[in-house]
Each structure stands twice: as structure tokens, then as C-alpha cells.
Amino acid sequence: MSNDQNQKDLSPRSMTGARVDAAAQELRAKIGNKFQAATFMGGLSAAVIGIQLTILVPSGAPGGSRTLAAPPLLPASMLLMLAALFLFIYGARRLDALTMPKMFWGETPYLGKDPRRSRTTPLTPLVMTLGDLQALWERMKMHWKYLVGGATWSAFVSLILMVVPIFAPKAWLSYLTSSEGLSYPTGGAVLIPLVYLLWFRLFKDRKPLSHD
């Protein structure tokens, strides 16, 4: 058998149902690994939030002193870490949904909303097609990039805001401790994650899949 014939037999268009099922199992195992990574990062974010609360909330009775000195940008840092925790949990939930067997997808695929799929025509139960495999792969990349990736960046910026006062000049510290200096990063920590999530839901999560 020639090399051209071997390549033809292994091309996506020539994949049999057994090959599609085997590839789907390998892809779901990969999705499971990404789900575990997202949940682990979410647990770390929750631990950091606990540390931040320990710094922010006074110990003992009301009016007691704080355990540690609170950084000036701690409120903004906490909000970004909370946003990261939410995105990690949301991303893990969406990744977990991708591991569902096809028989549980129902009329609307669990992979996401595709306007080109009819809501009144049920999917073929149990049978994984090449288009379903392609959709699974695309959704895995999207959730990992925009949800888990966005959560990672949010957590990174949150940690940066915690250590900025250590290296900031004294003139910056005096401004950061003022009400005006705190309003901008705190407002941005609330607004940016909300806008990002809204952008994802409207322009990425509803994007039609590229499979046939």
C-alpha cells in the first residue's frame, strides 16, 4: 500500500464510527485533565481569598487590630480574585459538561448554542459523528482559552496589586491610600470582569460551530 493511500485512510473524512469514538474518548480524557486543572486553580483562588479576608477583617472583637497590615489596593485585589474564582468555577462547569455522553445532549447540544442546529430535530442518540468530535474540540479550546485563561489573568493581576505597594514610590502610596486613588482600581476590578464575561457570552459562546 502506498503512502498516499495510508494518508487517505487516516484522513478525517475517512474516519469510521469506531475511530471517531476512540478519538472522542481520548479528547474527553484531555478535557477531564483540563477540568481538574481548573478546579485546582479555583481552590488556590479560594485559599488566597481566605488570606485576603484575614488581612482585611480585624481580629477579635469589633474595633480590634488587623492581623497584618492591609495593602492599599487590597479591595481591588480581592474583587479580581473573586472574579477569578467565579471564572474558574464556571470554566470547570462548562468543561465538565463537555464530558457528557451524547445521549444526554438532548435536542440542543450540551456543547453550546449553534444557530445552525434545529431545536426541533433531535440529535442521533449515541452515535458520535465527525462533526460532533470537531465541535467538542472547538468548545474545549474556547472554554480553556477564554474562561480558564481569563481567570488565570485575573488572579495574576490580583496578586500584582497585592505587591505593588511594596515597590511603589512614596508619592504613589499616598495617592493609592486616598479615596480617589482607591476608586479607579476598585471600580475597574468590578467593571472589567463583568464586561469580559458579557463579551464572552454574547460574542464567543454563541458563535456558530465550524463543523458541517
What does this structure look like?
The chain has helices spanning 3-9, 17-56, 74-98, 130-167, 170-176, 179-204. The chain is elongated. Helix 2 (17-56) runs antiparallel to helix 3, helix 2 (17-56) runs parallel beside helix 4 and helix 3 (74-98) packs antiparallel against helix 4 (130-167). It is built from six helices and no strands. The relative contact order is 0.15. The model is unreliable at 1-11 and 107-123 (pLDDT under 50). It is an all-alpha fold. The two termini are 31 Å apart. The longest helix has 40 residues, at 17-56.
Find the count of extended strands (DSSP E, 2+ residues).
Answer: 0
| Termini gap | 31 Å
Structural class: mainly alpha
Q: In this structure, how is the largest beta sheet organized?
A: none
Strand percentage: under 5%
